[in-house]
Amino acid sequence: MRELSKVMSVLIITTAYSFKEFFGIKFQDPIQDILNRVIFCL
């Protein structure tokens, strides 16, 4: 079950990053901060 949550977080993170790249969002935002914390927790 823990592996599944890890895979899900990686998918969410990669999706968020591709959306940021797609829309050309360059500024630091709360979502980025949350993602960094999630990565740090893994």
Write the layout of secondary structure elements.
Elements: H1 2-23, H2 30-41
Total discrete domains:
1
β-sheet strand percentage: under 5%
Average pLDDT metric: 76
Helix tally?
2
Please estimate the helix content: over 70%
Largest sheet: none
Q: Which stretches of 5+ consecutive residues score pLDDT under 50? A: none
Overall strand count: 0
What is the N-to-C succession of helices and strands? HH
Report the structural category.
mainly alpha
Termini, distance in Å?
14 Å
Rg, please? 11 Å
Cα shape:
flat
Explained architecture:
The protein has one domain. It is mainly α. It is built from two helices and no strands. The protein is flat, with a radius of gyration of 11 Å.
Quick tags:
42 residues; mainly alpha; 2 helices; 81% helix; 0% strand
Précis, in short:
By secondary structure, the chain is an all-alpha fold. The protein has 2 helices and no strands.
